[in-house]
Amino acid sequence: MKVVVIGGTGLIGSKLVARLAADGHDAVPASPRLGVNAVTGEGLAAVLDGASVVVDVTNSANFEYLTALEYFERSTHNLLAAEAAAGVGHHVGLSVVGTQDLWQGGDPTTTTAGYFRAKQTQEDLVVASGVPYSLVHATQFFEFIGGIADQQTVGDTVRVPDVLLQPMAADDVAAAIARVAAEPPVHGVSETGGPEAFRFEDAIRRVLRAATDPREVVTDPAATYYGITVSERTLVPEPGERLGATRLDDWLLTTAGAHTAA
Question: Are strands 2-6 and 133-138 parallel, antiparallel or unpaired?
């Protein structure tokens, strides 16, 4: 089965292409540096010829509302139109657990709520397109927890909201998307996350400890998530969803080992 991965040279896309190929699929990466640009439409018709499934794991260059909105509107419109013309039978999109709550949790013009509003617009376009689809909502990646700590730092202290966080490895995100891509369209959302839910401060503290980072981590009732007010379960998948296998502590050990070897 030919599966085209739009954004196939990025963090998730490259892992997804490798996973799909290992599963026996004809996995084709597509990105601007490979001559395929969903925003302009360049190369879409050619790369989608003969494709059974298209997976969109692209992302906006930044979280600013209007920039993200323009990116997702243009790229998704062009991609869906090209899929319809090519007779693609399954569109798979990657989004974020809690998107609907996140875009409503802050001012879209001054916080990253605007980015999530743009992601919601992207999802709405997919749902309304008539192309058979599946949407994969993933939790935050292990790879980005250090960046979250930096964003939440005030002075030498990392201040985080008192909520749950259920992060996952990028490899497990790719595995979840590959599984959905190989199955019939669900015409809805499949959520996924890591195998463990943590208090937000515990997840941050483990990552900083592994990096010998001395910053203190505290729970602050006034703290937000990238400027967004979140509730206890905004950042975790619904119970009963299929989860990744990689535990945070095991990932930290593997990552530390890789860095030592390098």
Answer: unpaired
Q: Which domain holds residue 131?
A: 2-261
What type of residue is 123?
E
Overall number of domains in the chain: 1
Of 203, 72, 55, 70, residue with least CA distance to 139? 203
Q: Tell me 165's DSSP state.
A: E
Amino acid found at 144: F
Cα–Cα distance for residue pair 177/12, rounded to 1 Å = 9
Q: How confident is the model at residue 259 (pLDDT cuts 50, 70, 90)?
A: very low
Q: Could you tell me the strand order of the sheet in which 26-30 lies?
A: 26-30, 2-6, 53-56, 90-96, 133-138, 189-192
d(CA 164, CA 231): 8
Which residues, in sequence order, are CB contacts of 127 under 8 Å at separation 6+?
133
Domain containing 219 — which CATH number?
Answer: 3.40.50.720
Cβ-contact 32, 6 below 8 angstroms? no
pLDDT tens digit sequence for 241-258 = 999 999 999 999 998 544
